[in-house]
Amino acid sequence: MIIVVDVLNQKQRSYCMSRIRGKNTKPEILLRKALWKTGLRYRLKNNLAGRPDIVFPGRRIAVFVDGCFWHGCPEHCQMPATNKGFWKKKLLKNKARDKEVNRTLEQEGWRVLRFWEHEIKNELPGCVKRILQAFKCTVD
User: Fold this and answer.
1) Torsion sign, CA atoms 16, 30, 60, 44
2) Of 13, 42, 56, 96, which is the most buried if we count CB atoms within 10 A?
3) Cα 52–104–51 angle (5° rounding)?
C-alpha cells in the first residue's frame, strides 16, 4: 500500500482550497458564451433551490454545470488518497443534495438540466442542443 502525504502544509492547502471557484468557472463561461451565440438569453442571479448556474425564467428551465470532482462524476471523480472518510461522506452528501434540488425544482414546475464539466469541454454543441430541445418541449 502506498501512502501519499500532502506536499502542502495545512495553511497552504486551506489557501489552495479557498481559491476554488463556485461561480463563473471555465465550463460555465464556455456554455454561457455558446448559448449567447445562438441567441438564447438567460439569467445568472436567482433564488431558486440549489442556485442554478443558468436560468431561463420564462421557460422555467434551470441549468447546472457540475464539476466532475465535487459532484462525483462516475467517469472522472478520483477519491483523494488522504482523509478518504471525509471525502466519501462529503461527495455522497453533494450527490444527495443534487437529487433533492432536482426534485424540489421539478415539483415547482421547473425543467432541470445538468451537465458534467467534461461534457461541456468535450461536447459543447451537444450540450447546447439539449438546452435548445428543452426550449422546444416547453409551452409558450
Assistant:
1) positive
2) 56
3) 20
Q: Which of 118, 140, 136 is nearest to 127 (CA)?
A: 118
Give the separation between CA 76 and CA 118, rounded to whole angstroms.
8
CB atoms closer than 10 angstroms to residue 39 = 6
Please give the Cα distance from 134 to 92 (Å, whole number). Answer: 28
- pLDDT digit string (tens) for the chain, length 140 residues: 555 566 778 787 677 766 666 677 899 999 999 999 999 999 998 889 999 999 999 999 999 999 888 778 888 777 777 788 888 898 899 999 999 999 999 999 999 999 999 999 999 999 999 999 998 876 55
Q: For cell 479557498, what's the residue? A: 18
Domain ranges for the chain: 22-137
φ, ψ (nearest 5 deg) of residue 43: -120, 145
Is-contact 63 131, C-beta < 8 A? yes
Record: fold of 22-137: Endonuclease; Chain A (3.40.960)
Query: Is the distance from CB of 57 to CB of 45 less than 8 angstroms?
Result: no
